[in-house]
Amino acid sequence: MDRVSHPAIQVSALTKHFGDTCAVDGIDFDVGGGVTAALLGGNGAGKTTTLSMLLGLLLPTAGRIRIFDEDMLRHRYRVLPRMNFSSPYVDLPHRLTVRQNLAVYGRLYGLAHVAQRIETLAADLQIGEFLDRQTGKLSAGQKTRVALAKALLNEPELLLLDEPTASLDPDTGDWVRSYLEVYQRRSGATILLASHNMGEVERLCSEVMMMRKGRIVDRGSPSALIERYGRDTLEQVFLDIARAGARFDPQAAAQ
Amino acid sequence: MSVTAVERPAALARFSPGRVGAMLLRYLYLLRSSWPRTLELLYWPAIQMILWGFTSQFLMTNSSYVARAGGVLLAAVMLWDVMFRGQLGVSVSFLEELWSRNLGHLFVSPLRPYEWVLSLLAMSLVRVVIGVVPATLMAIPLYHYSIFTLGPPLIAFFALLLVMGWGLGLIIGALLLRHGLGAESLAWLAVFLLAPASAVYYPVSVLPVWLQYVAWTLPSAHVFEGMRAVMFQGVFRLDHFFAALALDVVYVAFGAVVFLYAFRQARQRGALLQTGE
Which of A48, A138, B49, B197 could pair with B215 in a Cys bridge, judged by C-beta atoms 3.0 to 4.6 Å apart? Predict the structure, then answer.
């Protein structure tokens, strides 16, 4: 199968209601294999809710999710070993050392050579010096690298990232973005990230889905979106969309 | 490098002892990382045993009931602790995941909910052994009483009470999944609601008639009646044994169903990502 052209993620009519609140409103999108894509939107746009449904942590109210051609609502355990996830808002246990956390997750993913894999990742992600330190005692930048190590333990073919560089200083943020670029090129993995960081999205992603109030209101490559809206940066496009009325019209926004 | 370079032969299995072992390892790492946690396991059973040991010594000369079987109160307190620690072992390991906000990571891995439940039960057994065995051994030199004189029935009593504790632990886990850490105190207190009707230190016959009906729905009441039968009459009551066994099956099955239902509901509400401190 041609992974680059075949969609890794296929979402149709995906909807999530929390009581009377509609968090995600019938969205459709595909992400091709080997592509790095982004869900972009303001707070409450539905990005994290969408990622949670893709991961199977949250059950949709309606709609369909297929990952690697498997129905995630019925066969998620066929797919979970091939994907992974990282978020600054979901911690690893603080009292375990980094090595212990990675050892536990390595076993959960059924890795054959856990210790060897941890050493490889420690070298790649430069976490060797604090492998035996308690995870809760690390700095934000160190925690992000450890979370990335956990997310890459099983060499995922699909990596879902929720704000991968949130609360990092520019240097560490740049380091993480560079690492993700190298990983994507080396492995051919599909990456879907949710982010508020426009520079990050412009640099990493070839496809962007702009979300607002639970809907995908526009999509395209960063350069295509910038051109369509007659703007200079993706941030300006983001602001146009975020500040638009309930009925969004990209052509009107461009004028 | 290919993305398939990392071998994951066991990841697709419907049940994996390796994943259960991974979770058990996680809880053992946690226990090992903090000596106050280990001390806490030993502390309360030892204090209970010391208090009830002196009480028993006093009552031996002032109560014909205790005088007929000197260790009856000590045996009761130790066995009650098996049930309490069994429930607490499940609940505390469960709480560890809520405190560390780790559920999101766990359930995007191939870990199945029932594998997690099995690891919670296994860890509960470890915690019971660490907590209760030293206290039972301390009673031998201090009060010249060994619970091991109960003989083979002790194994049955231990197992029946542990399994009842597991059932309660799973029900409390379900409540924690539903209500979050707002329900945390249930993990520490809920089991004591059952203590009066469990007839730990007195026969079921002293209870009001209506409460006796309640007592006979508890595996623990049958176990403690059975324990007194062994100690006072020297007989192992099979009727109590089988009643407790049947009730245990009901409690654990009910606990597992409620827990897995609460887990699914948590996925509906998005609680696996949000539940924490």
Answer: B197
